[in-house]
Amino acid sequence: MQRRLKVGDDGNPGRVTLAALFVAMGAGPQRARDLALGANVHLRTYGIMDSPLRLAHFIGQTAHESGGFVYMEEIGGASYFARYDGRKDLGNVIPGDGALFHGRGPIQLTGRNNYREAGEDLGIDLEANPAIVAQPAIGMMTSARFWSVNGINAMADADDLERITRKINGGRNGIADRQLRTAKAKGLILP
What is the pTM of this model? Predict the structure, then answer.
């Protein structure tokens, strides 16, 4: 991977390698550095860096969700986010929850329940401070945690892109783009 990304080949991909990977997948240089700071810690903590296939699926899926790591917040306004209001499956039970707990971070964490659970697990009050999930390092932490607690490492180990997509998005939304981005990530990461 390091040779393909044209970074020092020491066999231990860290921040510099991850930043180069994010750039190759669409991020600007500063965004890539910001993401890599969090990724270097959190992708290891949650076992995503334990295998090239896990990393490739994580990068492919989050690249889709964030438009190539360009957007750390879901695109839309109040009327668009209103579609999340009243979604009890997301814990959005108070009017305005859709806008308050819209998608943020590389995986686009969505819904009051997801913000609350992630915050409780990570020791950060994300329910009271949802906007901080759009910060690349916090967003990377919540994305890696979401991936892990939802058992997606096992799905990545099985190379099951469709199941991963359903777990992240609830359906097959954007499946063709997810396939393309994951194939690109595999080309950069897999031996």
Answer: 0.96
Question: Which residues are tagged catalytic?
Answer: 65
* Amino acid identity, position 166: R
Q: How far is CA 184 from CA 74, 117, 140, in A?
A: 23, 32, 20
Phi, psi of 43 (to 5 degrees): -70, -30
Are the CB atoms for 96 and 83 separated by under 8 Å? no
The answer, yes or no, to whether residue 12 has pLDDT greater than 90, is no
Structure tokens at 65: 């969700």
CB 65 within 8 A of CB 108: yes
Q: Is 29 exposed, middle or buried (0-12, 13-18, 19+ CB in 10 A)?
A: exposed
Q: Where are the domains of the chain?
A: 15-189
Domain 15-189: give its CATH code.
1.10.530.10
Alpha helices in 26-149 (DSSP H): 29-45, 52-65, 78-81, 97-100, 112-122, 136-149
